[in-house]
Design brief:
alpha+beta, Gyrase A, domain 2, 2 domains, two-stranded parallel ribbon, 9 helices, 6 strands, binds flavin-adenine dinucleotide
Length: about 210
């Protein structure tokens, strides 16, 4: 059994995103937006791309943002967190299955508040017992899909997430906010930093609000 404190083991990678034949993902969105007011498709210069994306955000013409998609690979995250994540319905997810994957050495995510408290040792004892009983049950012939019922929600999982920029902006607004729970907030902040690198104009307002002004 392994233990990860807080978001120490959280790993988030941007593994794919929409890249047009020419130009950037920002430009793709701006050029898609431009067609609604232009007689022909046309290539935009950098200044026009910037101004158009700002205008789209201001007007709330958000369907244009759906042309850009982002795919993330996430590990070192608890099932507590992914349960909250998958409530966001306009996204695609593929999660490691507890029916098919035997958790030989389960890892558990431990909140900092528990790790630094007087309950820590007792808590670790419970996790150890749960992991041990899970192992014994699987070895004793109980199917993984049933043995997993003994595992706490803090068990680590892995998930692939794909969101378009419209849904991603909505997700980031909700989950980077101070009212969000710490783990999903840590996830959202990492996702925001990654997409800001490849699509700065699509996410600059959120990056400033939730990362720079944090
Ligand atoms: C701080 C916080 C606390 C929360 N606490 C709880 C809680 O105590 N209990 C709980 O159950 N959940 C809780 N949630 C989850 C929350 O209720 C939403 O399920 C979750 O945030 C997904 O948001 P969403 O529905 O806006 O987004 P998405 O599912 O990502 O959808 C995006 C947008 O699409 C539109 N949309 C999607 N589906 C529909 C639909 N069927 N009909 C109409 N419009 C739709 C909406 O405009 C929606 O905002 C909490 C969320 C946060 C951020």
């Amino acid at each position: 059994m392994e233990v990860c404190k807080g978001s120490d083991c959280l790993k988030v990678e941007l593994i794919a995103y929409t890249l047009p034949q020419e130009g950037s993902v920002d430009k793709l969105v701006a050029e898609s937006g431009a067609i609604s007011h232009a007689p022909h498709f046309k290539e935009l210069n950098d200044e026009r791309v910037k101004n158009l994306i700002e205008l789209l955000k201001k007007l709330g013409h958000e369907s244009v943002f759906e042309h850009a998609c982002f795919t993330f690979r996430v590990e070192g995250i608890s099932r507590v967190c992914t349960h909250q994540l998958v409530r966001h319905r306009l996204a695609s997810y593929t999660q490691q299955s507890q029916r098919y994957v035997k958790l030989k050495e389960p890892t558990f995510i431990v909140p900092e508040s528990i790790a630094s408290s007087a309950f820590y040792d007792e808590y670790i004892n419970v996790l150890t017992q749960a992991a041990e009983l899970y192992r014994k049950m699987v070895e004793g012939g109980i199917r993984k899909e049933d043995a997993r019922f003994v595992l706490p929600q803090s068990v680590e999982t892995k998930i692939i997430i794909t969101m378009n920029a419209r849904e991603l902006r909505h997700f980031l607004e909700l989950r980077c906010d101070k009212s969000a729970q710490w783990e999903i907030r840590a996830l959202a902040e990492k996702m925001l930093s990654l997409v800001y690198e490849v699509a700065p104009l699509l996410f600059d307002d959120l990056y400033e609000k939730y990362i720079l002004d944090k």
